[in-house]
């Protein structure tokens, strides 16, 4: 099945990865991990090179796309007026408690399903520094994709 999709996409695999990662990180439903794993499984890894060019470009497009998608959710959160949060749900209260305790470091977990989007939106609503938010978001997303890459290629990669 992965062969069909990768053959269908041809030379636009990295753009597909970027847009899938971008849309998956916004409030729209998506699952960029499947595309990432499919594309990573097709990359031939030479024994003497730890990060071949294909792997670097795949990591770059996935991480930047996912990071920019989360930053979009962050900016959407900045548009929420404080009066909308007078009666927050239990999830929002939980996220607010994490931000009060850990601050912007919480955004390292922005890759988590469901609550990751909420982390980004609440960070925007709290008006956290956007560059600091972007840094923590991108680090978290990169670590997630590195872990997924490790799952695909296993010990031969490291």
TrEMBL record:
Query: Per UniProt, which keywords does this protein have?
Result: Membrane, Transmembrane, Transmembrane helix
List all membrane-crossing ranges: 20-43, 55-76, 102-126, 133-157
Top-level division of the source organism's lineage: Bacteria
The record, for InterPro entries, names: DedA_domain, VTT_dom
* Recorded GO CC terms: plasma membrane
Q: Where is the VTT domain?
A: 56-152
What is the protein name for this chain? Inner membrane protein yqaA
Question: Which source organism?
Answer: [Actinobacillus] rossii
Name the encoding gene, please.
yqaA
């Amino acid at each position: 099945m992965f062969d069909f999709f990768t053959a269908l996409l041809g030379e636009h695999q990295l753009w597909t990865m970027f847009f899938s990662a971008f849309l998956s990180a916004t409030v729209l439903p998506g699952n960029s991990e499947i595309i990432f794993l499919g594309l990573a499984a097709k990359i031939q890894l030479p024994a003497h090179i730890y990060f071949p060019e294909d792997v670097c470009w795949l990591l770059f497009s996935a991480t930047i796309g996912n990071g920019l998608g989360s930053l979009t959710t962050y900016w959407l959160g900045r548009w929420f007026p404080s009066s909308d949060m007078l009666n927050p749900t239990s999830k929002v209260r939980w996220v607010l408690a994490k931000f009060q305790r850990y601050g912007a470091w919480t955004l390292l977990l922005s890759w988590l399903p469901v609550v990751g989007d909420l982390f980004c939106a609440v960070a925007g609503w709290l008006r956290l520094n956007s560059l600091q938010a972007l840094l923590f978001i991108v680090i978290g997303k990169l670590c997630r994709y590195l872990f997924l890459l490790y799952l695909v290629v296993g010990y031969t990669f490291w």
